[in-house]
Design brief:
The protein has nine helices and seven strands. With 204 residues, it is mostly helical. The strands form three sheets. A three-stranded antiparallel sheet has the order 1-3-2. A two-stranded antiparallel ribbon has the order 4-5.
């Protein structure tokens, strides 16, 4: 086989896709799907996904469909109903991955979500190398506009800011600051968060 043949190029394209796409994005899919399972079920499903055996499970089917698309020379997007558990974004304890945030806000790229955090338009922090986004910031599929106003005044972001916004505060009658932020009551929210944050992180 000639090194520059179409068949060789197609094989290289398949190998590249598997290493760069399946490895990264399949892991995100797995993490989302397994949210509601216990440890043993997670291990069983992970094993099925990696083995690719034709046992009727969704994961091998996903791989099979992806490969069929690749062998035609097309980068196929496959969507399969995996019956994902409902994500309760109203719960202040809910943390979303960048992929979940992208899907809930219907933006085209994960980098958009990362840029929101980087530019203090959204609260977020890294845990174990992965971006975590508090779900309460998304209302009806959109990022609440008051969050950027709050973060610009605070000039801080990260895990401690997240904790300060969801912790009930005695200075505001036991309400958590995130509830005030969503309503645009930034002054009262700032009062609570400044009280809860370490002194070196407080806004002037």
């Amino acid at each position: 086989m000639e090194l520059g043949s179409n068949s060789s190029k197609k094989t290289l394209r398949v190998d590249t896709f598997i290493s760069e796409e399946i490895t990264r994005e399949a892991q995100s899919i797995i993490q989302t799907v397994l949210r509601s399972y216990d440890s043993k079920e997670k291990l069983d499903i992970m094993s099925q996904f990696l083995s690719g055996t034709d046992d009727g499970s969704e994961a091998p089917l996903l791989l099979k469909l992806l490969m069929e698309g690749l062998h035609t020379g097309e980068k196929t997007t496959v969507k399969i109903d995996m019956s994902l558990p409902t994500i309760e974004v109203n719960d202040p304890d809910t943390l979303l991955t960048s992929l979940e945030t992208q899907e809930l806000t219907n933006v085209k790229a994960i980098n958009t979500v990362k840029n929101w955090v980087k530019r203090n338009k959204m609260i977020g922090f890294t845990d174990g190398g992965r971006l975590q986004v508090p779900g309460w910031q998304i209302v009806h599929g959109k990022l609440n506009p008051h969050i950027s106003t709050f973060l610009k005044r605070l000039n801080q972001n990260g895990a401690l800011v997240h904790m300060a916004t969801i912790t009930p505060c005695e200075l505001i009658d036991g309400v958590a600051a995130y509830e005030l932020i969503l309503d645009g009551k930034i002054d009262k929210a700032m009062k609570a968060v400044n009280y809860l944050l370490p002194e070196n992180m407080r806004a002037e």
